[in-house]
Amino acid sequence: MIRVALIDDHESVRLGLEAACARTGAMQTVFSGSSVQDYLRWRMAAFAPPADVVVLDLTLGDGTTVSENVQDVVADGSPVLIHSVADRTSAVREALSNGATGVISKASRIDDVIAAILTIASGDPLENLEWANAVDGDRAFADAQLAVREREVLRLYAAGLPLKAVAERLGIAYSTAKENITRVRVKYVEVGRPAPTKIDLRLRAIEDGLVDDEPGGTLGGR
Where is pLDDT greater, at 154 or 90? Predict the structure, then answer.
């Protein structure tokens, strides 16, 4: 049974998705609410494991940002499917660059939304028309395609943390953090955006929206 969390500030959208998930017989909606923080509080209170897929609207009515919401869900251990009108290409790219696994438009048929949830739950990439449109205007992001862990390491490292501190923050071995940075550098070289120094990596992270372009480099738009 695939455990799905629905986060959208439009109740009618959530109710429709809940019904569609139930009809499959293979999905269970474990949470339905209007904010990421409500979902995280529910998880803690219920001692529930992370959802297999979190279906997340791009814009919620609680003043949170796209970066905040996607980062919080990914850090909590769930893949994110963005379910939105998808006409704000920059916001979709922001969601993808912060770790969202895929995006599907609210204009899509409900069967296509269910298929997208199943794809992400199985661990496969979701590369559909919405994804293609989002990255088409930003070929550097599309070509580099850093993995989620690589983005996490780069985001912290480019923000100024020593690699050892990055490893400690993420709960991984120093050697793992170092390997991730090496892979990041290789990927940037392959798309013609070399980053041989930490300063260069910071510039690439700024270009890709992983850190803010300001002294000290705050993380991911926070």
Answer: 154
